[in-house]
Predict the structure of Hydrolase.
Amino acid sequence: MSGQGFGFTPGDDDDRDDRDDGRGDQGQNPFGGFGFFGFPMGGAGQGGPGGPGGQGGLGDFLNQLGQMMSGMGQQMNAQDGAPVDHSVTERIARQRIGQVAPVRDSEREALTDALRLAELWLDDATTLPAGANRAEGWNSLQWLEHTLPTWKRIVDPVAEQMAEASVAAMPEEAREMMGPLLGMMSRMNSMNFGVQLGGALADLAKDALTGSDLGLPLHTTGAAALLPTHLTALAEELELPARELYVYAAAREAAHQRLYDRVPWLAERMISSVEEYAAGLVMDYSGIEDAARGLDLESMQDPAKLQEAMSAMQNMDLSPKITSSNQHARTRLETLLALVEGWVEVVVDDALGERLPGAAQLGEAWRRRRASGGAEKALEKATGINLGAPKIREAADLWRRLTTAVGVDRRDGVWDHPDFLPVAEDLDNSAEFIDGVLGGDASDDFDPIAELEDQLRREAEEGDERDQPDGEN
């Protein structure tokens, strides 16, 4: 577990996801830790020197550089043009995780019992059937092994587009001068991405509690995955029986698996949102160009003026700005994360609230953990995608109000199709969305799929009528 335990950091509170810190992409470099061709440069970034993901300073950079250069000759020859060298990713991650104890049989049995009880209680709180077919106990290395394929899908399009954007932003003359060096720089960039991703995944693996506690569909094992060593350490920290924490964590993992297993489009829609966002990435060097235009070359012979110009440039943010033309994909991902985590929170609270003595304390602990390191922080460390904090509290409130208004069956029926889900604006004004669900059909036979099919049929018929020549019946 982390030094603060359970991912807590001083000053964190439960209102983080209520605050709009105005981050976004404008005026920032969410990939500041990668810089030009993936190398750390001006400005701190997640996972880079000076960023939350690293130790900071020259020592951290030299350490990363040393790891990257280790075995470079063989790696250079083995590169296949991939945007990220995942052999480096896995090696660095395993080195940083170190030796971990295997999961004991007694722990597996305890997790199986916890999952069985959690699934029984969840059946009363949701109409979505069980998605996990077994409980699995993992250690940090097993978490890495089982989630790495999904991380590859998430990171590769971002790294590939970043490399292309770096080259595209260079002047034509510079590209011609570099010539064959571009290939070597691309391979070094791939290795550096591998180093930084490996470090980020190692940190996540050492803090993970379940296979889905980030809210992302990171594994496809079909199991409810839990990390008993980390859960036991947390139980000691919270001064609660380990069995209660096992049941609570199993319920959250099982609720996630019900969604991702029984809503087949959900996981793919999340991953495709990352891919779509990455496809629109562009690199803006206008800050550097503006600084260069502001230099008076004739005055550079005056040491005093030269020193003045250098001091002025030190106070400027010269790191390239990263933006995406596909901001709607980022908004969609933020909203999906909020809806998933909000739904899981509501379902688990309803299932365990009156049955598990420590449920309220555990729910509060989970919210604090999420506030200090949720899915958006994981994505930031692993890919540099700078999401705003998902509005999980607002999403949970929407699901609770919807449950009260239409019941569990119709609430869960909203997951039948992506077009039925609330959009970002609905999280700030849930009343309008709930009124829409209430007004869709007053009967208990409401079928959202049938409603959508009827709407598409009516639109097709109207289109056929418009296409008919004048005078025809």
Observations:
- Residues 1-56 have pLDDT under 50 and may be disordered.
- Residues 217 and 454 are 32 Å apart (CA to CA).
- The radius of gyration is 25 Å.
- The chain has two domains: 16-285+320-383, 392-467.
